[in-house]
Amino acid sequence: MATELPPLPFDYGDLEPFMSSQTLHLHHDKHHSTYVVNYNNLVRGTELDDRSLEDVIKAVAGDASKVGVFNNAAQVWNHTFFWSCLKRGGGGRPTGALLAKIEADFGSFDKFAESLKNAALTQFGSGWAWLVLEDGRLSVTKTANADTPLARGQTPLFTVDVWEHAYYVDYQNRRGDFVTAVLNNLANWEFVAEQLARATGG
Ligand code: FE2
User: What is the pTM assigned to this prediction?
Assistant: First the structure.
């Protein structure tokens, strides 16, 4: 079904100085918006038109003849998810069940943070770094370009967009500084905890 560009779950200036209003206007109003327009143009009038975005992503993943649909659908979903992972006054350490699960599966929060940063830095070119749940266990993964854990049977819990358009205005080539700023100042751990609780029936 046609999808719409959801508004950001915060104001454009809310994430200053860690993510500028200029970056958010470009990233949301231009990049994310373009994926929505492209997706709707590609599925209009096809058998995919009446299916949800998540269904379409899973249905066309790996289908070489539908790579355009996959790329745009996944980028719409990934970006909407990314915005939910951010908030003003976020970052630092989570609490409660999320922190306990991270400590159980990674050894410590610092080891998780290091792993996520490493995934972000070693993603060659455009892509995403993720915290996912798979078979009851947390892990960090990375995906290239539009690819998404949704298409791999994993449950995404948190992500950082590491396409250059996510950080170049504010951090130029310093991807690591951007990821550190997200972890220290913007990560919406309450949202992540909700995703974990939903996935584990908690
Ligand atoms: Fe992006």
Answer: 0.97
Picking from 181, 166, 179, the residue whose alpha carbon sits closest to that of residue 27 is: 166
175 CA distance to ligand 1 centroid (A)?
13
Write down the residue that tokens 């396409």 correspond to: 163
- Report the distance separating Cα 106 and Cα 116, nearest Å: 11
Q: Which residues surround ligand 1, an ion (CB under 5 A)?
A: 161, 163, 166
pLDDT at 1 > cutoff 80: no
Q: What are the pLDDT digits (tens) for 89-126? A: 999 999 999 999 999 999 999 999 999 999 999 999 99
Taking alpha carbons only, the member of 187, 182, 179, 193 closest to residue 95 is 193
Query: If you measure from the C-alpha of residue 15 to the centroid of ligand 1, how many angstroms do you get, rounded to a whole number?
Result: 16
Instruction: Give CA–CA dist 69/83, Å, rounded.
Output: 22
DSSP classification of residue 156: E
Rounded Cα gap, residues 173 and 5, in angstroms: 28
201 Cα: distance to centroid of ligand 1 (angstroms): 30
Whole-Å CA distances, 81 to 91, 103, 105, 108, 202: 16, 24, 23, 25, 20
